[in-house]
Backbone:
């Protein structure tokens, strides 16, 4: 099958990882941040061109306020510290989701990273924060309506380029950690023909070896895109 251009990961299992060790959920989320950090670096080193990580959904605001505040604080710290690594590895940062609703301090960090890494071209790291795929599709429709786009000009390519992922290629490989078999409203349009791998491994334990194993499994699969083998 070859090598995937775009790998997307649903990072699941932080809370269960912490519970199994008798630790707080915040400790699990901190370990999850560390896993994300090493996965971004590993993806670039392995030659992946686009990596999308699902960090915080539009539904996650429903969690207890303390947990949400903890997650936002960790995210802000992570974003503030991440620029040197992005520049060192020539990685472009791109946010997926609505900025509106995210704390202003985090909005500032997101916009700063996007601006300062815009010329990096080894890999694009898409971080989904305040993201929901159904919302993304609705927002794309609204954008086309606001632009008064003639209906005869709307096709799949135009619509896809109007999504938050823009000109990024479709997802080739979708990985979910934590053992569940759900896509959880993540990149629904972009994952139409994605190969899906679910791992029992909790996200904080995920690392370069797991990613490499997933790439090897992907290479053994046969993608038919609705056709015959």
Residues:
């Amino acid at each position: 099958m070859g090598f995937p251009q775009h790998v997307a990961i649903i990072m699941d299992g932080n809370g269960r990882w912490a519970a199994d060790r008798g630790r707080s959920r915040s400790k699990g989320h901190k370990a999850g941040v560390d896993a994300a950090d090493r996965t971004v670096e590993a993806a670039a080193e392995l030659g992946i061109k686009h990596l999308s990580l699902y960090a915080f959904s539009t539904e996650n605001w429903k969690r207890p306020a303390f947990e949400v505040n903890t997650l936002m604080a960790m995210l802000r710290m992570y974003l503030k510290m991440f620029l040197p690594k992005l520049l060192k590895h020539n990685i472009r940062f791109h946010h997926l989701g609505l900025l509106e609703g995210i704390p202003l301090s985090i909005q500032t960090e997101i916009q700063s990273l996007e601006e300062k890494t815009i010329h990096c071209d080894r890999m694009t790291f898409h971080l989904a924060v305040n993201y929901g795929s159904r919302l993304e599709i609705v927002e794309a429709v609204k954008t086309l309506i606001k632009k008064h786009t003639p209906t005869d000009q709307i096709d799949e390519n135009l619509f896809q380029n109007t999504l938050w992922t823009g000109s990024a290629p479709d997802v080739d490989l979708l990985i979910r950690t934590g053992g569940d078999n759900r896509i959880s409203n993540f990149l629904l349009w972009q994952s139409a023909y994605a190969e899906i791998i679910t791992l029992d491994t909790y996200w904080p334990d995920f690392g370069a070896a797991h990613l490499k194993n997933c790439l090897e499994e992907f290479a053994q699969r046969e993608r038919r895109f609705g056709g015959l083998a």
